[in-house]
Amino acid sequence: RRKKKAADDSHYKMIPGVREMLETLAEHYPMAVVSARDAFTTRHFLEYFDLLPFFTMVVTSQTCKFTKPYPDPLLYAAEVLGVPAEACLMIGDTVVDVRAGKAAGAQTAAVLCGFGQKSELIRAGADLVLTATPEIVDSLLKRDRPSA
Questions:
Q1: pTM
Q2: What is the pLDDT of residue 62?
Q3: pLDDT attached to residue 7
Q4: Distance CA 3, CA 17 (A)
């Protein structure tokens, strides 16, 4: 992969609105990437789109003894960030992401712009299901909602 790095970059895609979402959320929350992919692939993607500055840390399949759906990588990230796991929000697009978040005691938001289907994400226990990742900003910051 390292030798083919330049050729492999063409398959990388970033969901529209994600950069703006990260810019906004980084002003309010400490954030970490928790990926089941290896360190090289994860970091390469983040570097390719210049996303590393938004995250305090990157946890990969090689960081902890067990990876998602085990809670270990989320618990590790929460500890390093100095945030109780129950105050964390795991955002992901798979049942594995939701299960890992739930196992760690975190809140979970599932997004339908990846691999997961709405019905299976709900069955897995997602606290929130969104059509697109950038919608998380409105949910977290309570934008565009009438005051009660």
A1: 0.85
A2: 94
A3: 45
A4: 31
Between the alpha carbon of residue 122 and those of residues 11, 100, 108, 130, the distances in Å are 29, 14, 10, 11
Token couple for 112:
């339908």
Amino acid found at 107: Q
Lateral strand order in the sheet of 128-130: 89-92, 107-111, 128-130
Per-residue pLDDT at 148: 47
Which residue bears the tokens 């083919």? 4
Nearest to 136 by CA among 106, 112, 101: 112
3-state secondary structure the chain: CCCCHHHHHHHCCCCCCHHHHHHHHHCCCCCEEECCCCHHHHHHHHHHCCCHHHCCEEECCCCCCCCCCCCHHHHHHHHHHCCCHHHCEEEECCHHHHHHHHHHCCEEEEECCCCCCHHHHHHCCCCEEECCHHHHHHHHHCCCCCCC
